[in-house]
Design brief:
Layout: E1 9-13, H1 18-29, E2 33-38, H2 41-53, E3 58-62, H3 68-82, E4 87-90, H4 105-126, E5 136-140, H5 153-173, E6 179-185, H6 194-200, H7 205-214, H8 224-235, E7 246-249
Parallel strand pairs: 1-2, 1-4, 2-3, 4-5, 5-6, 6-7
Helix pairs in contact: 1-8, 3-4, 4-5, 6-7
The structure holds nicotinamide-adenine-dinucleotide.
The site of nicotinamide-adenine-dinucleotide has 31 residues, from helix 1 and helix 4.
């Protein structure tokens, strides 16, 4: 147990799985109360039970972050329980495969409604409750927002929007002392990655994993815990002079 987030209240979207769940465990271990916001109510319940079993203060709300009403209601529940919010990890995301020719309009709209609109809506609901010193927002983009990745057009464009939104938010809220940074992960083995591995391996998931590892100079995929540690760094005072920064955690993909 550490104390990097001692006494803070954090909201983590998409905390029912993968990177968000790993961050929820790390944040409670560092002394934060954590609100799990995820559209999947079963994942919300299980995550909250796990966090409480680990001795953490945790609550949950089943929220689709693309729905303004659900976001407002979920954040109101968090404020009623925690009294304030110090940290927001905008982590929930959606992806879709395809070029601009092979993607559907639904793919485009889904990526933008979760990744860009969802980040906008949750930030809009949370920021008025960030009244203490040392508040921080950590957004989640992807290396797809920085470099071209084949057949990821809608996802890449929506993650590019998250990077631009991060810089805009950093400037707008710096006078209030709210820092806003964005993480761009490389490939991290979570449930979200599995369909991509299948597609990349043309039905053979392990071939897809091998091809993806090949693109990472460190010679492996990332783990949810590694991205969670970057989120912790950006959420706590260790990064107190950083705002508007794009942090890649990609095993060297974008260094090539
Ligand atoms: N896994 C990777 O390789 C990778 C790489 C780069 C960026 N990312 C980004 O990291 C973030 C987390 O991804 P992950 O790999 O942990 O995925 P994951 O699938 O393990 O978890 C995502 C969680 O978000 C929830 N979610 C999805 N849409 C939602 C919505 N509209 N409202 C609320 N919750 C919603 C899901 O229910 C799920 O619990 C995403 O933004 C993703 O784009 C992941």
């Amino acid at each position: 147990m550490g104390s990097k987030l001692s006494g803070r209240g954090a909201v983590i979207t998409g905390a029912g799985s993968g990177i968000g769940l790993a961050a929820a465990h790390l944040f409670v271990a560092e002394g934060s109360a954590v609100a799990v916001l995820d559209r999947d109510p079963i994942r919300v319940k299980e995550a909250v039970e796990q966090l409480q079993a680990a001795g953490g203060r945790a609550m949950g709300a089943a929220v689709d972050i693309s729905s303004p009403d659900q976001v407002q209601a979920g954040v109101a529940d968090v404020v009623a329980e925690f009294g304030k919010i110090d940290v927001l990890f905008n982590n929930a995301g959606a992806d879709a495969f395809g070029s601009v020719v092979t993607s559907s309009l639904e793919d485009w709209d889904r990526c933008f409604s979760v990744n860009a609109r969802g980040t906008f809506l949750v930030s809009q609901a949370v920021i008025p409750h960030m009244t203490d010193d040392g508040c921080a927002i950590v957004n989640t983009a992807s290396i797809c927002g920085l470099v071209g990745v084949p057949n990821y057009s809608a996802y890449s464009a929506s993650k590019g929007a998250v990077i631009a939104l991060t810089r805009a938010m950093a400037i707008d809220f710096a006078p209030q002392g709210i820092r806003v940074n964005v993480i761009c992960p490389g490939a991290v083995y979570t449930p979200m990655l599995e369909p991509l591995m299948e597609a990349r391996g043309k039905g053979d998931r392990s071939a897809g994993v091998a091809a993806t590892i090949n693109k990472h100079p460190l010679g492996r995929l990332g783990t949810p815990e590694e991205i969670a540690r970057v989120a912790l760094f950006l959420a706590c005072d260790d990064s107190s002079f950083m705002t508007g920064t794009v942090v890649t955690a990609d095993g060297g993909v974008t260094a090539q």
